[in-house]
Amino acid sequence: MQNPLARVRGQGSSGGGTQHWRSQRYSALILLLSAAWVLWLGVSLAGADYLTASGVMSSPINAGMAILMAGAVFYHTQLGLQVVIEDYVHIPALEFALLLFVRFACLVAFLISAIAALKLALGA
Amino acid sequence: MSTSKRPMSPYMLGPYYKFQITSVLSILNRLTGVFMSVVTAPLLLYWLIALASGEEAYAGLSLWLGSPLGKLVIAASVFSFSFHLFGGIRHLIWDAGWMMEMPQVRLSGWLAIIASVLLSLIVLGAGL
Predict the structure, then answer these.
(1) DSSP characters over B64-125
(2) Domain count of chain A?
(3) For residue A4, is it within any domain?
(4) What ipTM is given for this predicted complex?
């Protein structure tokens, strides 16, 4: 379906479009907007005991923010590490294995974060 | 392997290029990003797991975070976060097509350094 217009719109010799670049910026925007929340959380829970910390994380707002943040963090991490690997790892098999590992690790990390945050919020 | 014989663009570090605020901040944005990927994000994930696992796991992590190594990791994470935050804001401003002239790029670079040091000191000061 690639016609000259698609090429003009940025799908050049790389074969891909601007999807990666855009996704990196959109996730950055989410992280930028939630930076104040994570700074507040870090400062207010620094050195906090178990009851205080679990109490704060049981609030639906904080649980929701934690899940949103985890999604944006591990998505942005995957996109960023992907570029670093593509730039510096020039052994094709190793590059492929690392890219696969990073995707897998980031997905698992997000799932675990979401389940942990839900467990704290639901008090299970 | 044939790939190693291909011409490559000159490596930005080493004797070929003079160190400049543009190149130093560019590599620092990458380094802080990789550091947070490898250290800070796994630590935050482990904090959440420990908190969800119960009092004993959380107490163990708290003890480690209070140790000199734990404090060093926290300080490095806070600085990396601050620097990557302001470095990222610079990138988003450039993506909008603003501040692209060299004097403006150098100015925003210095502002990002000052802002990230200040934010790190404020956060670390408030958290201690």
Answers:
(1) HHTSHHHHHHHHHHHHHHHHHHHHHHHHHHHHTT-S-SHHHHHHHHHHHHHHHHHHHHHHHH
(2) 1
(3) no
(4) 0.89
Average pLDDT of every residue of chain B: 92
Residue A103 in contact with partner chain B when CB distance is under 8 A: no
CATH of the domain at A60: 1.20.1300.10
Cβ atoms within 10 A of the Cβ of B17, count? 11
Check whether domain B32-127 has CATH 3.40.50.720, yes or no? no
The residue segments making up the domain with residue A58 are 24-122
B42 near A CB under 8 A: yes
Q: Report how far residue A8's alpha carbon sits from residue B11's, in angstroms, rounded to the nearest whole number.
A: 31
Regions in chain B scoring below 70 on pLDDT? 1-4, 9-13
Q: Is B52 on the interface with A (CB under 8 A)?
A: yes
Cross-chain residue pair A42–B85, CB shorter than 8 Å: no
